[in-house]
Structure formats: structure tokens, C-alpha cells
Amino acid sequence: MVDEEVVSERIRQIAATLEGRAGELTGTLVQLYATDLPQLVNDDERMVSLLSASVYQNIETALQIFRHGIDPATVEPPAAAMEYARRLAQRGTPVFDLIRAYDLGQAAMLDFGFEECTRLVDDAALLGAMMRRLLRVAYEFITRVVRQLVGVYQDERDRWLLNRSAARAAKVADLLDGNGGPPDVDAAEAVIGYRLRGTHVGMIVWHASEAFVDDALSLLESVAGAVFERVRGQGRPLFVPRDEASAWVWLPLAPGTSVGREQLDAALAEAAAGVRVTVGDPGTGVDGFRDTHQQARRVHALALAAGEHCDRVLTFREVGTVALMTSDLNAARLWVASTLGPLAADEENCGRLRETLRVFLATGASYTAAAAELTMHKNSVQYRVRKAQELLPRGLAEGRLDIELALALCRRLGAAVLSPG
């Protein structure tokens, strides 16, 4: 039976020996990280210096535990180790790299300790007892330190992301506001992490479901990423959350490209049913950054007014005229009523007549073309067009453009601009 006090005394001797080599051991571990975790040893001298200080203080703390029999459960991580964990969090270094560094460091220090044990101790039983003690205490120490540092890392990561998101949102708001003269483009790009000098298209993405959706923002960001992937954009998209279920998005595009309807429909086909998207026209530079966003917002207002009647995807190119007319929804409703008269009634029969008249006018007032698009008999189209015209306050020849616009509003907004039946 090995005397535990003898084990403790021999371990104290070994810890004292290694304490005199703390600087050398620190250099060895930093070199180990340079080989196995090169992302921790980059060209930033401040980070390398902080890493060295963290390693040195951890070695000193561990050796003090062995020299003085300190309970590892009572030990706090060294100051340099906590600061290094915070810096890694700020830089977005994966927390796994931090954990891996401690695993490598623990294995290396145990190797140093075992080497000293075998050099100084001949008794196999005593040697085994010492190694078991070293393994147990080292494990308890590293486990406690890593658990605390992961907490420090996560807290700092959350705080950093929150602050960065707030700074990014504030800078985006400044760019959209446009007051205060021309922006410092370089500084703005650094804050928002997005290039402003190229071509972009603005989008509004949101989840229309009234029910709570877990992590809706991640869902919306994945939809924006799916669109970006399909248009083969250049650079990185800008995703700015507005609340828990909506966000503003800018996609950087190659010159001369745009976001096509097929690409949008394909991305939405793979998304949850509640996701909606509105899209502006491509714009260039800071002015284009503002313009495409404002267009997407106008279409977004149109989509909200339409409610469930709205398509999942609306683009300014398709509905821009209608969107511009709905900034005052009450005025739009009154205008539709005065333009279409009884045809604006929120009734099923009037709805059929409006759609037939809309398609008839959109196909160049061709009964044949309208019948083909509506998959109806030509005589049925003629009948419905005649009945629709009978309900209009004035003939098509007098106000065809207004009538077409009013029909487009009815199609897009439905009950929001229709008169009570």
C-alpha cells in the first residue's frame, strides 16, 4: 500500500521542478498550437502575446495546485485565460478550437509530468500512484477551467454579436436616411460588412404566420441565402433583422444581373409556407442601396394590405405601379370605387367579371387571346366583358388606363380596396 503523503510529497517535488521551466514549457505549448491549431497563432502579435500569457498562467496555476494540494474545484481561470477566451469570441473563432487547445495542453503537460516521474521514481507502485493522482487532478482542473471559459466565451460572443448587430443596424439606418451628406463608404462597409460600391437588390423577408415560429430569423436568413445562391451573387449578403419575424436583406449582384422570378419561386418552394418575400429593382452604389430597399418596402406595404390574398413573392418590377398607389389605402379604395363603380363590389360574380375584363384588356382587347388564357369559350368571354362594361361608370374608351390600374389593384389587394357587396 502506497502512503498518500509520500505520493503528495513526490508530486510537490516534481511540480517545483517544472515550475522553474514554466517559460520553456509555455514556448513548447505555443509551438504545439502553431502546428495543430494554426488559427490560434496568426500574425496578430497581440493575440499571440495574450495566448502565451494565458498558457503561462495556466501552467503556473496547475503547478500551484500540485505543490500546495489545492482543491481544483475552488480554482478560477487565470485572468489572461479569460481575456483570451473573450478575444476569440469577438473574432468568431469556434469555441471547439478553445476546448481543443486545452485538451492538447493537458496532454502535453501530463507528458512533462510523467517524464519527471519516471526520472525521479524507481518504485513501480509509487510511480503508478503518482500518475493516477496527476491524471485525476489535471482532469478536474482542466474540466473546471474549460467549463468556466466556455461560459465566458458564450457570454462575450452574445454581447459582441448584439453590439455588432446594433452598430450595423444603426449604420444601415444612417445610409437609408441619407442625411448628413455623402457617407464615408469605406467606414460604412467596415461596420456593416457589406460592399456598397457594386450592384445590389433589396428584399424584405418575413414570416406571415400569426402562430409563434421558433427561430424564425434563422429560417428567413436561409431563404435569403437560397435566393443568393441561385442568382450567383458576388460577395456576402447583408441580413438585418427588424424584429423576431422579419428582416431587411441586400444581395450583392454581378453587374448586369438581376433576381428572376423563377429563382425567387424556386427558393420559396423549399421554404416554410408562411415565408413571404418582396423584392426591389437592382441598384448601384449607395443611392441604389437606398432605392432598391425603398422599392421592396413599398411592395411590402402592398403585401401587408393584401393579407392572405397576397402572393408569396412580389417584385417591384411586377407590381411597382400598384404599390405606389397604396401608400394611402383609404384613398385607393375610394378611387377604385369611383373608377369601377358597382364592378368594385366584393362579390364572387363581380370578381369573375373583373378578372375576365382584366385579362381581356391585358391581351390587347382580344376575345380569342383572353379565352385561351382563361381556358374559356370565346362567347363566354364576350358575355362577361359586356356585363362588366355595363357596370362601369364610363366606357373603356374614356378611361381605359385607369380601369386597368383599378383592376390590377383589385387583383392584388382584394377586399382591402373592394366595396362592400
TrEMBL record:
One Gene Ontology MF term: DNA binding
Keyword Magnesium: no
Keyword flag DNA-binding: yes
Domain CdaR GGDEF-like: 178-300
Superkingdom of the source species: Bacteria
RsbT co-antagonist protein RsbRD N-terminal domain location: 24-168
Gene3D superfamilies: PucR C-terminal helix-turn-helix domain
Pfam family for this entry, one: RsbRD_N
Record domain PucR C-terminal helix-turn-helix: where: 353-408
Keywords noted in UniProt: DNA-binding
Family of this protein: Belongs to the CdaR family.
Name of this chain's protein: DNA-binding transcriptional regulator, PucR family
Organism: Amycolatopsis tolypomycina
Organismal lineage: Bacteria, Bacillati, Actinomycetota, Actinomycetes, Pseudonocardiales
